[in-house]
């Protein structure tokens, strides 16, 4: 079979690309290296930013400024503007697909604070937003007829007469090399941050092989130095402590009981502040005790359970080491 489009990568980017590419006449396949449910997108917890009122130009401009400021002037402003102006439409599309964002008292989509944001604009599903969105997108893609080729390690782009003609993949189930011919290939893989084992919340699968594939095919890579380290994770397992915890009002404190940073600063600022405390020989904790059990169980249920099961910590009554 010759596919019209092959998408490499099973996170939100790959799933959305496959959904958009699928038509009644287009044959679309989505290839993942591992389990479709275990992408980085599925592990992302806190939420997705958008000004929900697409006519509120003032708030959208604030979203643009907050985002551009966080790039220290290195971001491509036109790209940022495109993203921010389209964000409300993407949220609506996700709702139409079936994503059930948390609602406020009036029944509207609730929004929480997030690092670097001057106003509350983060839409969320408890503290498992990524997983919830991924599951809905998988269901949507399947309903449209997208073919899922899971546990396929793409090794190279197939090139014929200097044109992309598909992908060469190692089918992990039986170690067979398979060629999937395609008229177009979309690379939507998860980067290489998994190589920072013990210092990253990324799955260890994310080792940059897709980037190497692109290089071997003669494509150009840019901005390789921009690796974002999430500020907070479990000490022993690096399990993600969602930014939702700080967005809901959690404190970062050191072993002296001092708050040492604005918890809602951008992630690079918070990460450096935590690193400085650790280098100075102090332990760092996230303190949620003042939020109360009701808020924690409602807004941060995954963190509440994971802290107890993985670290033996009851975050309603104890500090969680990070």
Uncertain regions spanning at least 5 consecutive residues = none
Decide which structural class fits the backbone.
alpha/beta
Strand content: 15-25%
**CATH homolog superfamily of the largest domain:** FAD/NAD(P)-binding domain
> How would you describe the shape?
globular
How does the major sheet shape up?
Answer: 6 strands, mixed
* Average pLDDT figure: 93
CATH fold annotation of the largest domain: FAD/NAD(P)-binding domain
Summarize the amount of helix as a percent range: 25-40%
Number of strands: 12
| CATH class assignment of the largest domain | Alpha Beta
Query: What string gives the helices and strands in order?
Result: EHEHEHHEEHEEEEHHEHEHHE
Distance between the ends:
49 Å
Q: What strand line-up does the widest sheet have?
A: 6-2-1-9-8-7
Tally of DSSP helical segments: 10
Gross CATH architecture of the largest domain: 3-Layer(bba) Sandwich
Rg calculated over all Cα atoms: 21 Å
Q: How many structural domains in the coordinates?
A: 3
Question: How would you characterize this protein structure?
Answer:
With 322 residues, this protein is α/β, with parallel strands linked by helices. It folds into three domains: 3-41 and 136-216, FAD/NAD(P)-binding domain (3-Layer(bba) Sandwich); 48-123, no CATH class; 244-321, Flavocytochrome C3, Chain A, domain 1 (Alpha-Beta Complex). It is 34% helix and 18% strand. It is built from ten helices and twelve strands. It has a six-stranded mixed sheet. Strands 3-5-4 form a three-stranded antiparallel sheet, with no helix packed on it. α1 (12-21) links the parallel β1 and β2. α1 runs parallel beside α5, α3 crosses α4 (77-97) and α9 crosses α10. The radius of gyration is 21 Å and the shape is globular. The termini are far apart. The mean pLDDT is 93.
């Amino acid at each position: 079979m010759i596919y019209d489009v092959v998408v490499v990568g099973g996170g939100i980017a790959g799933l959305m690309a496959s959904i958009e590419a699928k038509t009644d006449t287009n044959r679309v396949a989505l290839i993942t290296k591992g389990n479709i449910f275990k992408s980085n997108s599925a592990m992302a917890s806190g939420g997705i930013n958008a000004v929900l009122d697409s006519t509120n130009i003032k708030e959208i401009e604030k979203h643009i400024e907050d985002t551009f400021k966080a790039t220290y002037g290195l971001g491509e402003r036109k790209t940022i503007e495109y993203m921010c102006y389209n964000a409300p439409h993407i949220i609506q599309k996700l709702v139409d697909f079936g994503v059930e964002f948390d609602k406020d008292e009036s029944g509207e989509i609730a929004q929480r604070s997030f690092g670097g944001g001057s106003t509350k604009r983060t839409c969320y599903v408890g503290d498992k937003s990524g997983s919830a969105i991924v599951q809905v997108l998988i269901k949507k893609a399947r309903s449209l007829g997208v073919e899922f080729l899971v546990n396929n390690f793409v090794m190279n782009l197939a090139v014929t007469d200097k044109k992309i003609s598909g992908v060469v993949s190692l089918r992990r189930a039986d170690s067979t090399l398979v060629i999937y011919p395609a008229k177009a290939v979309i690379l939507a893989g998860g980067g290489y941050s998994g190589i920072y084992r013990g210092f990253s919340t990324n799955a260890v699968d994310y080792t940059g092989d897709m980037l190497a594939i692109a290089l071997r095919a003669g494509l150009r890579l840019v901005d390789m130095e921009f690796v974002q380290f999430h500020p907070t994770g479990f000490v022993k397992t690096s399990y993600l402590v969602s930014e939702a915890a700080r967005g809901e009002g959690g404190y970062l404190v050191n072993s002296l009981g001092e708050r040492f940073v604005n918890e809602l600063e951008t992630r690079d600022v918070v990460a450096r502040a935590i690193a400085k405390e650790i280098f100075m020989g102090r332990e760092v904790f996230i303190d949620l005790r003042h939020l109360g059990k009701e808020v924690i169980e409602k807004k941060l249920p995954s963190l509440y359970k994971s802290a107890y099961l993985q670290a033996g910590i009851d975050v309603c009554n104890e500090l969680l080491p990070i």
